[in-house]
Design a protein that fits this description.
This protein is an alpha/beta fold. It has helices at 6-25, 38-43, 56-67, 89-101, 112-129, 143-156, 175-183, 204-216, 239-248, 286-289, 304-311, 344-354, 356-379, 408-425, 452-466, 469-472, and strands at residues 136-140, 165-170, 191-194, 220-227, 252-257, 281-284, 297-301, 383-385, 393-398, 431-435, 438-444. The protein has a seven-stranded mixed beta sheet with strand order 1-7-6-5-4-2-3, with helices on both faces. Strands 8-9-11-10 form a four-stranded antiparallel beta sheet. Helix 6 (143-156) crosses helix 11 (304-311). The structure holds pyridoxal-5'-phosphate. Pyridoxal-5'-phosphate binds next to helix 6. The site of pyridoxal-5'-phosphate has 12 residues, from helix 6.
């Protein structure tokens, strides 16, 4: 098993290929989610410490019978929860190749072609965003890590150890920003939550007021985080205006585009992102709207020298000898990770294999699906929107006739029970958001398989499940 023969490898791959064909072919008919318990899953897993090996077929059987059915089927076309990509077959093969080669992208010398491929794909992403020619970047584990890198770079530009650094983000910003501030020693309490408007975009007047008040109180404003697609509602902040404010107060502008930024590939959404290319740094997640499997996040920055100043670290055991500039490239000088998986391969295989035109069309179709759901909700008498659809996220609630005159608390309670019941039902999957203090059902279309018909099925599922007695009554 540690080193299988050619025949064994062939037999394993045949079984895996067959599994993949059956799994993807039957995806629509699978329950998206199965209500289960920790106990039920543990019962399917032999807990004994394995002194002797087990053959591949037996491992595959556990995967097929226990792991697959008790996982949420993230590739299912009606998986609308969170910000979940479906993965793509081409990237599954890329991940396999990456593991076969097991390249470790620490420095150019350790993985020459993989590092070149990372540089190439990072440069493609730079071009997609419209960033300056000298910009650089890295693939990282996800948007949270990319936000941390952007904020670490921002801090690098202010040489201040007073403990009074202040960072500004909208109240709708992702929690990874506050986490990054805590991890970097800036302090969660120094992340100022800026108010949002009725479309959940940052309010520029409140941003300026907070910066000004902080300056007067002796704080040191250093960074503003703008959203290119908030996690709750998909709001895109006014990026150009934020750039102007950042310039006025000499702040670093970081954009959190983890969810939304790749929607710049869709004609219908492009204008929303004007000004994004002027940011100092941006967090992106190819494992969201490029449909790739986890994990691959990405950070792009205007000035790689600032990343180097923030992260470079020289140790004798990693010192390099006799390399020219390009070949002397040290990945760990530009981010926090040392060992790094060959994430670039799946990005490259996707972009090169599928092409930007098809990706843009798929994103466009996701936007259309969310827009269609919004129009159906607005035309209905038993659903209502809680926020306008801006990209592919939709927040709404179900208000059947008999609930119409009930209190907001009763309506929220019903929708909370409905959410859990729909998740357990297994035909469609939503998550939730709290907006202006009220509970909302929240969905995000992030799958190239999702169709307009799936949006109709989602509403039918909610109506069907909502009619059940235990969902209606307060337990
Ligand atoms: C806007 C936004 N920022 C950051 C993140 C964190 O990304 P990750 O889960 O890849 O760390 C998310 C995740 O959903 C997000 O939606």
């Amino acid at each position: 098993m540690l080193e299988p023969s050619a025949d064994e490898i062939r037999a394993w791959s045949n079984s895996v290929t067959q599994f993949m064909i059956d799994y993807l072919g039957g995806l629509r008919d699978r329950p998206l989610y199965r209500h289960t318990s920790s106990r039920e899953i543990r019962d399917g897993l032999d807990p004994a410490l394995p002194a002797k090996g087990t053959d591949f077929d037996a491992l595959l059987k556990v995967f097929r019978d226990t792991i697959v059915p008790f996982s949420r089927q993230n590739a299912h076309p009606r998986m609308f929860g969170y910000v979940q990509s479906p993965g793509t077959p081409i990237a599954a093969f890329a991940d396999l190749f990456a593991s076969i080669l097991n390249a470790n992208l620490t420095i150019w010398r350790s993985a020459p072609a993989p590092v070149e491929l990372e540089r190439l794909t990072i440069d493609w992403i730079r071009q997609i965003l419209g960033f300056n020619a000298g910009a650089g970047g890295l693939f990282v584990s996800g948007g949270s890590m990319a936000n941390l890198i952007g904020i670490a770079m921002a801090r690098q530009t202010k040489n201040d150890s007073s403990g009074r650094l202040r960072i500004y983000a909208s109240s709708e910003g992702h929690f990874s920003v506050a986490k990054a501030a805590a991890l970097l020693g800036i302090g969660r309490e120094n992340v100022r939550n800026v108010a949002v408007d009725e479309r959940f975009r940052i309010r520029l007047d409140d941003l300026v007021a907070k910066i000004t008040a902080d300056l007067e109180a002796g704080y040191v404003p250093f960074c503003v985080v703008a959203n290119a697609g908030t996690v709750n509602t998909g709001a895109v902040d006014p990026l150009r205006e934020i750039r102007e404010i950042a310039d006025r107060f000499q702040l670093w502008m970081h954009v959190d585009g983890s969810y939304g930024a790749f929607a710049v590939l869709a004609e219908a959404a492009r204008k929303l992102f004007a000004g994004m290319e002027q940011a100092d740094s941006i967090a992106l997640d190819p494992h969201k709207w490029l449909y790739l499997p986890v994990d691959v996040g990405c950070v792009i920055y205007r000035n790689p020298e600032i990343a180097r100043a923030a992260f470079a670290y020289e140790a004798e055991y990693t010192r390099m000898f006799g390399e020219e500039a390009d070949e002397a490239f040290v990945c760990w000088d530009y981010g926090p990770e040392l060992s790094r998986r060959f994430r670039a391969l799946k990005v490259w295989m996707l972009l090169k294999g599928v092409g930007l035109d098809s990706l843009g069309a798929a994103i466009e179709s996701n936007l259309a699906c969310a827009g269609y759901l919004e129009s159906m909700v607005r035309a209905s008498d038993d659903f209502e929107m809680v926020a306008p659809v801006q990209l592919s996220i939709f927040c709404f609630r179900h208000v059947p006739v008999q609930l119409r005159n009930q209190s907001p608390k009763a309506i929220d309670g019903f929708n909370e029970r409905l959410l859990v019941a729909v998740q357990r039902d297994g035909s469609s999957y939503l998550s939730n958001a709290t907006l202006s203090g009220r509970f909302a059902l929240r969905g995000c279309v992030l799958n190239y398989r999702t169709t307009l018909r799936d949006m109709e099925i989602l509403l039918d599922d909610l109506r069907r499940v909502g009619r059940k007695e235990d969902v209606r009554s307060q337990k």
